[in-house]
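User: Predict the complex with NAP.
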Amino acid sequence: MTLTVSILGSTGSVGKSTLDVLAQVRATNQFDFAVEALTAKSSAALLADQAIAVGARIAVVEDEAALPELRTRLAGTGIEVAGGRTAIVEAATRPAAWTMAAIVGAAGLAPTLAAVRQGGIVALANKECLVSAGGLFTDEVKRAGATLLPVDSEHNAIFQVFDFERPESIERIQVTASGGPFRKWTREAIAAATPEQARRHPVWEMGIKISIDSATLMNKGLELIEAHYLFGIDPAKLEVLVHPQSIIHSLVSYADGSVLAHLGSPDMRVPIAHALAWPRRIATNSTRLDLAAIGSLSFEAPDLERFPCLALAQAALHEGNAAPAVLNAANEVAVDAFLGGKIGFSGIAPLVEAALNESARRGWRKPASLEEVDDLDAKTRTVAAESLIKAA
Ligand SMILES: NC(=O)c1ccc[n+]([C@@H]2O[C@H](COP(=O)([O-])OP(=O)(O)OC[C@H]3O[C@@H](n4cnc5c(N)ncnc54)[C@H](OP(=O)(O)O)[C@@H]3O)[C@@H](O)[C@H]2O)c1
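Assistant: Here is the predicted structure with NAP placed in the model:
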């Protein structure tokens, strides 16, 4: 049987790793697959190369200004091309039994939901869409009869050691964090960090937005919220554990004192291959774990004073209501502002906090529909942009 796959965000870090795993599957004849859709924001040249390499049926760019280049590069190949936000959603609607959702940010929500509504397997890398839509997203998954497989390495780890038959026996889930590039930096040094320093992650090679989120530890906060919605676990049972080697990806503690941990090399091809083959396993040439060579593993508690974004995300998780969606949208604005030189690194957390305070002051409620999620996201971006103007 041929598996039909689509990759939303194929030109990004996760998208490229997914194509790498698929190339290994093809080279080793493990199973047959056909690529339906590949999408990008504006990387037309790379998208065209990818589409030709895997024989995709359609390649789509969100940015219509990139469409002429995509069209030129794919002329005569028989591969369809399209451009625009609606075209991305339409691409996600085309029949695919397995979709990788790897667009970054809340922009991934509509296309990921379109893939979910097909009722197939959605391998979820895009955590922001789950953070902003929360239970509305997981309700859509249930309604469509889709299967959501976590690709974020920590959540893929939890998925592999989680007792879905007896979730009440779970006492605690610890999501591990490398600590990011500023783990040992002083508060003053962190405040003066440049985008170049912030994007240099000590362990993982990732896209720019998640790299900045890893430096602020907001990424770990988003992951706690993601874990809450993916596994239905009470916020009080979710913790962050700093583990600089990133070998243990998460730990699940049970009522009898057992702790089940998932280990692996820090290589995204491992969780991607797991999600691609689930419930089977496929062979990959991902980096093998050599514990003797690593020698020792270390752990520490996160420092919430030097990394206030994690504290804000934990508070948003506990509060629920509008807070997770507001946190996510304000963080996207703050990260863009930092990368654009409008605020310093230490300006990210205050901008997010100001948006959360404004949301509380205006009495913004938990969205009751996906339209309300979009509305809340847009209102938050306006509030955060206003704070930026005031701060300038
Ligand atoms: N990287 C990792 O190791 C990792 C691990 C776990 C989870 N994740 C999550 O996976 C998601 C993707 O991360 P990444 O590191 O792969 O990001 P990335 O390298 O920045 O790639 C993002 C992808 O989304 C596309 N894109 C960006 N904005 C878009 C928009 N408005 N509409 C349509 N497409 C858009 C990009 O296209 P262009 O190339 O044209 O810009 C690119 O294909 C994030 O949610 C991240 O948190 C990543």
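The pocket of NAP is lined by residues 9-15, 39-43, 62, 88, 102-104, 107, 125-128, 152, 204, 206-210, 268 (CB under 6 Å).
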